[in-house]
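Weekly structure sync, notes
Attendees: PL (lead), two postdocs, one rotation student
Agenda item 3: pending single-chain targets
PL asked that the sequence for the first pending target be pasted directly into the notes so everyone works from the same version. It is reproduced below exactly as submitted, 265 residues in total.
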Amino acid sequence: MTEKNNDTKSGGVKSITKAFAILEELNNAEELSISELSAALDMDKTTVHRIVNTIKETGFVTQNPITKKYSNTMKFYAYGKNVLKKNELGDIARPYIRQIAQLTGETVNLGIMVDNQVIYIDRAQSESGVQVATTTGRSIPMYCTGMGKAIMAYLSEAEIDKLLAETELIPYTMNTAVTPDDIREKLEEVRKRQIAIDHEEFEVGLIAFGAPIFNSDGHPIAAISISCPSLRYDQKKQGAFFEKLLRDAATIISMKLGHTGNPTK
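Predicted structure, written out during the meeting:
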C-alpha cells in the first residue's frame, strides 16, 4: 500500500472517530448547535459542520428548523430496540423489572456498562403521579449513580483505577463524592451490603438503589435499579424492601446468565 493510500485510510478512520464523538455528544443533550459541538469536543467548526451534514444525509441526525440546532433521530431508537430484542440480558431481566415496578410503584431500570458509563437499555415506568424521567439509551456516570456504583464496586482494582483516571469527577450535587478515596469508600459500602445507594448524588431530589448483575465469568456487566423522588421515599418502610427485591432479582438474572459463584475481583 502506498504512503498516500495509508494517509487516506488514516484520515478516514479519524473522520469516523469524530463522527461517533459527535453522535455521543448529541446523545447526551437534547439539541446542540455547531458551535456548541465544536466547543464541547474541541473540534474545528468547519470539520463539525461537514461531519454533521454527512450524518444528516444518512437520517441519523436532524436539524430543528426553528433553533437550527441538531439532534439524533429516532432511527437510533429503532436500531437499539432491535439490538435489545437479540440481547439475552434484556429478555431475561424484563419480567423482573416489570414485577419490581408493580410491587414498588416506582421506576425500575436496567443498564449496562459501556465505555466507563452506564447506558439505560430498558425500564418499567412508575405508575405513581410523580414519575422519575429516565430514557432508554441515556448514559449516566458510574461513580455517583446507583447502577454505576453497583457495577463499579465489583470491577478489579486495575479497572477501577483506569475508570477513575479516565473519568471527569464532576460534583453534580452537594452529595457527590469527587475524590478517588471518597469514591472507593462508597464502593466498599456497596460490597458490604451488595446494594448501591445514590442519595441525591447525581440529581437533587432523586434516590436510586442499584444491584449488580454478573455474567458466567463472575464479571459485573449490568445492573438494575429502583429510582424514586426523595420526597416520596420512606427509609423505614421502603429501604429494606427495595434492597431485597433488587438483590433477589439481580441474583436470579445473574444465575440465568450462567453465574454460579462469587463475583470476580
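Discussion points:
- Residues 9 and 75 are 28 Å apart (CA to CA).
- The chain has two domains: 3-73, 82-256.
Action: rotation student to compare against the earlier draft before next sync.
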